[in-house]
Amino acid sequence: MTLSLALEARDLSQLPSRRDEDWRWTDLRGLIRELPAPSPEVSADLSPGPFGDEGQAELLVVNGRVWGDVGLLTLAEGEARVVRLRFVSATAATGHGIKLAVSLAPGAHLTLLESYEGQAPDYLADATLNVRLETGARLERIVLASDHAEGVSVSTASVSLAPGAGFAQTVLTDGARRQRLETRVEHPGQSAAVRMDGAYLIADRRHADLTTAVNHAGTDGTTDQLVKGVVADQGRGVFQGRITVSPGADRTDARMGHHALLLSDRAEVNAKPELLIFADDVACAHGNTVGALDEDALFYAQQRGIPEAEARAMLTEAFIGEVIDRIVHDGAREVARAWAAKRRVG
Amino acid sequence: MLSIKNLHARVEAAEILKGLSLELPAGEVHAIMGPNGAGKSTLSYVLTGRQGYEVTDGTATLDGEDLLSLEANERAARGVFLSFQYPLEIPGVPAMTFLRTAMNAQHKARGEPEISATDFLKRAREVAGQLKMDFDMLKRPLNVGFSGGEKKRMEIFQMAMLSPRLLILDETDSGLDIDALKIVADGVNALRRPDRAMLVITHYQRLLDYIHPDKVHVLAAGRIAATGGPELAHELEREGYDKYARAA
To answer: How many CB atoms lie within 10 A of CB B64?
Structure first.
């Protein structure tokens, strides 16, 4: 059951619903009563996306159609580049999906600056990425989701790594009417390294779902995950993080942290951190907290002269800053910092 | 400078201050001593405008201006500074960033121009030097992982940078060993000026060996139960607070 299948088959019954355990907090079947018309082809004459002119090349996907060279996502041995990948939903009340492959040959190095841009309300958008990293290849993926408040959007990345490959991602979102950003990683261990971070800043009645699953199949793999969120108004944040350590995946080192701030009585965070460990000799840890902004710290800042609204913004920005500091690409880190400053919620 | 008249305040349903009156002239240092639960911390929070502390009667003015109707940050901009008993840790915000934000907010509230990054840095180096502080400490997130002594020194640093008119020191001696206490006291003493007043809140007389008060007030059961010179602190050290607690 996926949005992608439902759009392809034009069949509502293919939509995931709350009866699917993995979708219980992001119900699409209950939300979507009829499938919208397929999105039209529109010209790709667009202003710059959230990453501006960072990187060397841009691949544009508008209403599910590729404008540009998909070859940008295939890197030969030892090749390195920084690519902006922009998914734009441009037409109201229509639906579209796209499948793309990202392939890195041994030793290749890609920085992917991926954005989801909603320019009109009520769209239904699906993006599916299949990512393969060969030995020693490295991918840093920075996702900035700026969907429309009334858009519905699902992005699913399936990542498979060869031994010694490195995959790092940071997903930043301010939600949508319904939005899910999902990443699944097949982790071979054997010195492959994964970092899967995220930050959500949600206000109004928006919804964002960060779902991740990492399966450690071999020995000596690492996964490091830090997700932080701030939810105000009647917003809702969902974090589902699953790390599986398969039988025999000894000496796996996996750490997961999810921490959220609720800034209003009606804000909601649903968190399901899972560590499923079927091997003996492992180092695994997880921490999950949901709380309010520290009133003592708030008063401390006010007592030094900082007005309340500014103090709140400073503290929430600092809270999210820990995630942003971990972004490796300098330009993307600055874009992310500016994003967090602008999307101050509460 | 600071004038408190018949102040009544409560926290939730409990009345903590019950008619407290106090005059603190410019240039003077007054100590407030009292047993646990007498209302010492409540007094500092009421004066600085912490939420949850409700004033039910009385007045508090700074140079004639009503303090109680101002927001906490507005009081800070008027020159009220509270040195916290337990300074807060602010992860993710470097001490310098925090202080510069505070300074500029105060300047803005007073209609003064913002301080430039260069001027700020220059002044910060100067003050850090006077307090014998490691300048690199100011680049770290505020108070995160600092020892008790370092946190108190950071309070003195902020105090010296912000140059307030009314300093309230809430149990500044708690958690300090004797060396740290001397450093903090030296820092406070260096800030004494004819146009500045200090209220030193403490449970023990120890701090007053280093910061010499002009007057000592005994706070018991929400009121000033006695006022005297420095000798009163020594008497309290010998005899305890019992007679004031009983009288209240």
So the answer is: 7
